[in-house]
Amino acid sequence: MARTEAASKGTVRRTMRLMGAYRAEIVGVAILSVIVSSTTLVLPVLSGRAVDAIVGPGDVDMLVVERYLAWMAAAIVTTAASQWMLTDLSNKLVYDLSRDLRTKAFAKIQRLPLSYLDSHPSGDLVSRVANDVDLLSNGLLLGLQQMLTGVLTIVLTLVFMMGLDVTVTLVALCITPLSFVIAAAIARRSYVYFNKQNESRGALTALVKESMEGLPTIHDYGYEDETRERFEELDEDFRAVGIKATFYASCVNPTTRFVNMLIYIGVCLVASLRAVAGLVTVGEITAFLSYANQYTKPFNDISAVVSELQASFACAARVFDLLDQAEVEPDAPEARELGHVEGDVALEDVRFSYVPGREVLHGITLHAEPGMTIAVVGPTGCGKTTLINLLMRFYDPDSGTISVDGTPVGDITRASLRGNWGMVLQDAWVAGGTVADNIRMGRPEATDAEVAEAARAALAAPFIERLPEGYDTVLEPGGSQLSAGQRQLLCIARVMLARPRMLLLDEATSSIDTRTELRVQEAISRLMEGRTSFVVAHRLSTIRSADQILAMRDGRIVERGTHEELLAKDGFYASIYKAQFESA
Fold this sequence. Notes:
Elements: H1 2-19, H2 23-52, E1 54-56, E2 59-60, H3 62-111, H4 114-119, H5 122-164, H6 166-213, H7 215-220, H8 224-276, H9 282-323, E3 345-352, E4 361-368, E5 373-377, H10 384-391, E6 399-404, E7 407-408, H11 414-419, E8 421-424, E9 433-434, H12 435-439, H13 448-457, H14 461-465, E10 474-475, H15 484-498, E11 502-506, H16 514-528, E12 532-536, E13 548-553, E14 556-561, H17 563-569, H18 572-581
Parallel strand pairs: 5-12, 5-13, 8-11, 11-12
Antiparallel strand pairs: 1-2, 3-4, 3-6, 6-7, 9-10, 13-14
């Protein structure tokens, strides 16, 4: 519990520091809150004095009454105008803060290492960037609009009450601490459950996203019941912690209302006794009763805001946790830009593990001379894709060296290294935007003619030209309007337009029909001419012309050579090849 309280306080302080960037807006909110509270609280005094001007039947000082009524009207107009400006300014402040925090969170994701993204559900990250920031903004908005005004109303009410009668005011002050003690005790418990609620929401969002993406597979394997059971389990967890969080949060308001009624009764009783004794006037009694209501009302508002803030700060803690994650290790200060590339790639005794103590690659050594095509084959899980991740420097090896043109990749900036690699993966990624924008991703300055030429070279032009707007057709994120094969052709066109010096092709034609694959292979072969290329393929027919084939098994290169050399050895590669083509 102590650790939770410390974390909560740290989150509150950090949120306040973020708001410090908007000092001008906060000062404006504070000034407007003072005006709203002051003009609201002056009304009971004015109305009380107007009442005192009515001495009895036929004895009414109308000039005094009219003067106080005019002042009351001015106070009401001022309050309304100030309240409107307060709402507008606090909305702007909170939404600007939310925009900046969401931008920071999104930018942080871009800088996180691939290991973090691989180990955390994308749905949970989406929930943190979108839902949690949104809930935080809701809580801060209530805090600015009601908390600050409420606290000022309490303080200023006491000041006005003191001006009328100290004894009656002391009655309200003596009972008030009870409300704070009860609210604080309940708030500590509600924070714990709001935090659990947000974690549960993230897990639920992740499952929904995962299920939507894999719906065809779920239907295909009849996995609907199991998925629904898992959803119901997470939904029940979310319901259970949500009920507990809401229960504790909802306890604040009735308890503070009870204390507020005690304050009202105490003020009413003592003020009446002092009026009987001639120490206060009837008008002052009406003012005291109004102040008793206005003094206690903010406690109810604040108690509701406290519940919202508990949920908001729990959301903020999840966003801050994301922002605090270790980023990709920055480029070394002496790292240089990779300029003209020959394409000489070498790996020397490279070892790598995703999890410490569980090595995935064991002493990989290879040398690709400029313009060579290196094919990597082997069963699923043998380390082929891991090798590509290391070449792109998505991960760094545990030991050994990887070099390009004789320079270790650790001495090269990541941006310039990756800018010289062209990559087509098995899972083709399409961004939201036009078809032309997707192809132009590697070369934003490319002309429309160059985009069209790249599409023709990748054999993507025929299906693109059949789209409603051709190259200007807007694609949904993920390219749901396109088939898997069309998305892959689009990615191949993207690489063809960029024309990098080195290529990584991981099952680049796996989603294309056999007839189209033969034609695309011709286009890829032209693209690979004069470029160092690493090709991962399960269809061995596509890599027979490779300069060198690496056969991998269990994270090791067990054979290497040309297609003919490896067949002549009649070893591991030959067994894979025969398994594919023996029946044919």
